[in-house]
Each structure stands twice: as C-alpha cells, then as structure tokens.
Specification:
Elements: E1 4-10, H1 14-22, H2 25-29, E2 33-40, H3 47-53, E3 57-60, H4 65-75, E4 80-83, E5 88-90, H5 94-102, E6 111-118, H6 123-139, E7 148-151, H7 152-157, H8 168-176, E8 181-190, H9 193-198, H10 202-215, H11 220-227
Parallel strand pairs: 1-2, 1-4, 2-3, 6-8
Antiparallel strand pairs: 4-7, 5-8
Helix pairs in contact: 1-3, 10-11
Keywords: Cell membrane, Glycosyltransferase, Membrane, Signal, Transferase
Main location: membrane
GO molecular function: glycosyltransferase activity
Length: about 230
C-alpha cells in the first residue's frame, strides 16, 4: 500500500481539529494513513496540544495557508499527500474511496477531491455545496475545503502550493488541470461558519467576485483584504 501523509494547516483550530483528526483514525488503523503533519501558524488556543494528542507531527510556521501547506508537504514523508483543512471532517468510507483511487493504474498522473457538504442541513447549504461540486466536476476548480489527494510526483511537477495568503488552492488545481482531477465517492463535511456569518447569498457572491479578480490578475495579497 502506498505511503500516505495527511497535511493540515491550523490557526486557533481547537474547536474543530479533534473531529478532523478523529475521522482519520480508521484509515490510520488499517494502514492507509502513515503520517499526520499539522503545520501551526501560531495558535493561542489548545490546537497544538490536540494535534499532538491525536498523534500528529506538529511543525511551527508563519501564518498563511499557502505557506503552511507548502511547509507540510516539504516535511511529509509520503509518496502520496492528502491536504485537509482543520474544519473539515471526512465521511465514513472515505478511506476505501481514497485507497481505490490510489490503486488505479493512472492514479500517479491524477489527483482527487471529495464531494463538498456543510455542517448545516438547510436548503441554502445544499445549494451552495451543489454549486461547488458542479464547479469542481465541470470546471476543475474545487474549494480547498474539499481536500486534495495527490501523488507527490504530480504535486511537485505542477509547482506545489504557492506562498500566498489566498487562492493557493486555485493556483494548484489550475496547474493540475480539469482532465487530471477526479471526484471521490466520499464527502468532506466542512464548517459553514463564514456563510452563517456573512449570509448564504452574500458569501458566494463575494467568493465569485474574488475568484474573478484573481483570474484578471489581481494579486492574492490584495484580494485577501476583500475576502475576510
């Protein structure tokens, strides 16, 4: 079985990290996940303690998701990498879906993401998740919340995560390309906190505006001020 390292960037993630790590326990027991790497950007809560209690290697980094993800990838020992956000919980059965994908003859030249769902069972949440999944399938532009399972060789070939404060996920999947991106038959359930705070209509409009500006060449550091 291939050696899989999971990389999770954190910053004051104590409220969600335990559930994120808990969803990985079965995969570790069956030998699919060999290593957990938590890259912390200076948390002031119990994030680091929770990560260590969950069996993770904890690495300190300057805050910035792109920088933290790149740092974790450099430290990880696996020939396969799974990047997850700390507020994402993978559904039961994800390990089987991931293992099946990793065993495919063409898997070394492709990456995969999970279906997106939010931790809120409302029509608005299902609508936003459905649009995100459509975007991932047809445009090859998944959210970072959907995770990313990728062979190290492909990750390095497309340049890895850029050290940017925003759009690091979009930059990487654009390098991978839609034809080399698959969707696994498993779900990543992520926090709907920002949507509950900003609104289920306003937040997607803001996300689309920021993405459009990024494609027009506006630097990520400038976009970060608008993203919130």
């Amino acid at each position: 079985m291939a050696y899989l390292s999971v990389v999770i960037p954190t910053l004051n993630a104590a409220a969600t990290l335990q559930a994120c790590l808990g969803a990985l326990a079965e995969a570790r027991t069956r030998g699919l996940v060999d290593q957990l790497v938590v890259v912390d950007g200076g948390s002031r809560d119990a994030t680091v303690e929770i990560a260590r209690a969950g069996g993770a290697v904890v690495v300190e980094s300057e805050a910035g998701r792109g920088r933290q993800l790149a740092t974790g990838a450099n430290i990880a020992a696996g020939g396969w990498l799974l990047f997850l956000h700390a507020d994402t919980v993978l559904s039961p059965g994800w390990a089987t879906a991931a293992a099946d994908f990793m065993a495919r003859p063409d898997a070394g030249q492709a990456a995969a993401v999970f279906r997106l769902a939010y931790d809120e069972d409302s029509r608005a949440a299902r609508r936003v998740a459905g649009l995100a999944n459509w975007r991932a399938r047809h445009l090859g532009l998944p959210y970072g919340d959907q995770g990313l399972l990728i062979p190290r060789e492909l990750y390095e070939a497309v340049g890895g995560f850029a050290d940017v404060p925003l759009m690091e996920d979009v930059g990487l999947v654009r390098g991978i390309g839609r034809r080399r991106l698959r969707m696994l038959d498993a779900t990543a359930v992520t926090s709907a906190g920002r949507y509950r705070r900003d609104g289920w209509w306003w937040r997607p409009v803001r996300n689309l505006a920021v993405l459009s500006l990024y494609f027009l060449g506006v630097p990520p550091r400038t976009l970060k001020r608008f993203y919130g």
